[in-house]
Each structure stands twice: as C-alpha cells, then as structure tokens.
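Our consortium's second objective concerns turning raw sequence data into structural hypotheses that experimental partners can test. To show how far this objective has progressed, the report includes one record in full. It was chosen at random from the queue rather than selected for favorable results. The single chain below, 337 residues long, was entered without modification.
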Amino acid sequence: MGDVSFTEDELAETLRKILGGDHPGVRLGPGDDAALVDPSRHLTVLTVDMLVEGVDFERATATPRDVGYKAIAVNVSDVAAMGGSPRFALSAAGFPETTETGWIIELFAGMREAADEYAMAVVGGDLSRADRVVLSVTVTGEVPDGGAVMRTGARPGDRIVVTGALGAAAGGLRLLRAPAQSVAHVIGTPWARELVAAQSRPAARLGEGRTLARHGARAMIDVSDGLTLDLARLCRAGGVGAAITLGVVPVADTVRLLGEVMPVEPLALALEGGEDFELLAALPPDAVEGATKDLHERFGTPLTDIGEFREGSGLVAVGSAGSERPLEPKGWDHFGS
C-alpha cells in the first residue's frame, strides 16, 4: 500500500506489536483468527462507529494518530452515555493503494494511545484495500445489570443537564477548513489550539457517565451530532417535549473568541455544531445539585441545568424574558445535503 517494503502479513505483524501487550481479561489478542477474552459478570455493551475519509475527516487537516485516537474515543463516548465501562475493541480498516505504511502505523498507534487512556484493549481487526481511508471500530463494554441508562426514560418535569461546554469541536473544524491566510494570525494561539484539539482529540466523559447513572439519570445520550438534534432524539425516545433556556447553554469560551475573528455565531455552534461528545441527560430535579457537586469534585467537570422535559413533543427555546418559541433540531446528518 504505497510502501512495498511491507507485505500485508508484515504490516499486520507490526500492528499486532503496536496493539499487543498484557491487558486484564485478554486471553488471546491480535494475531489469530479471533481474540479470546474473559466474559464479564455484568451486562455487555456493544457499539460501533465508522470514520470515513472525506465525510468524517480529511487527511489534509487530520493527523493519522488523531484519526486513530478519535475512532476509539467516539465509541467509548457511546459506552459512557449508557453509564458503562469499555473493555475491548475490534477494528476494520480499508486504505487506498497509495497510502504510506507509516501513515497506517501512526493511525494504529493513535488507537493504542486512546485504548490505554480508557483502560481497554484493541484485541484484533482486519485490513483491506478501499478507494479512501475507512476505519470502523467496534467496542465492547460492561454495565451492571439494571444500571444501564438508555434514551427512553425522560419524564415530564425532569431537568435537562449537560456536561462541560459546547461548540468547541465545531469551532475547531471551522478553523481547520478556513483559508490559511485568513487564520494565520490566530492559529498558534492557545485558544485556537484548544479548538483544534476539541475536534481532533475528543474526550469521552466516561467517569461522568457512571456518576450521572449513580445519581439517577433516567435518560442519556452523548452530544455527537449537535445539542438540539440529540435532545430531540431523547424526546422522541421518551415520548416527551423539552424546553431549553438559551441564555444558560454552556458555550465554550474558545468559541466566543473565535466569534471575534471569524463570522460564526457561538450559540449556534453550541446548539448545532456536534462532535462535542459531552453527555446530555435527564435528571430528577432533586438529583441535580448532588450530581453537579459530585462531577465538579471528582472530575472538575461542570454540569449545567439548561431546561426541562415537558408533556407533549418538540423543542422550545426560552428567551431571557421568559418568552418561548419553537426550536428546530439541527445538527450533523451523514445523509443530509
């Protein structure tokens, strides 16, 4: 694949060494027909995500190590949204013939880096040729029986809470896609680097997800496609509506700085940008204070109460004077125009 010094078997052996190593629960890792792992005493969580060149990333603006890291992190975020813990991952990757071997090795090094970060193991996978880079990762995790938080549980009166701040990943994407000459004066600043890191190296809120589950979260989802779009999914799943107060939506400070140098609306990026991978949850009103304190003390992560679930359907935006208007769910759609 671009570098003829490696055969497929030699490349697979190199990747096995990158991904290998002792890990609790792994009896047989990469290198055989299949992996062997110890079963968990809890419920098994399964999730899969795909990164496609030209759709989810561009090689011109994303390093291979970042792509590999992100492929693991976005799956771990799905496990976090159910209050679970990740254990193992499998990958399947396709590469154009011209792809350099070094690029592929760096990709898998990024996957190993993320797996180490989340105390899990990549136990196997497959390689093939494709017309563009395609990376699919499946993660298995665990959650105590009866402890999984699904999308379906929101009730009227529950508070809508979200971890962290929003809009940074979308702001980072805007920076990466902007003409170099238009952002040359800011691209090296600390806040601009933070924006790019939010896009290229998302953090899965793993401990936060388990903590919210312990505080009685009735429904939860990670904000992968945009706050309003993912909130609408919680509403549909639970058969409820929602009202959010726009003035309290936690917009990342770095996005506000971006708005001073580029024609972007910070609140719009926070509501619709996507890829923040923060957790959006339904909490009983009497659980919000305790959960907020716990997340701050344990992880330094803010938790913001942005509204309430209501009877009915659809989203409503609440203004500063208490006025209400319909809010259209918007965000990233892989099949949208």
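The partners drew two points from this record. The longest strand covers residues 85-95. The mean pLDDT is 92. Both points have been shared with the crystallography group to help prioritize constructs.
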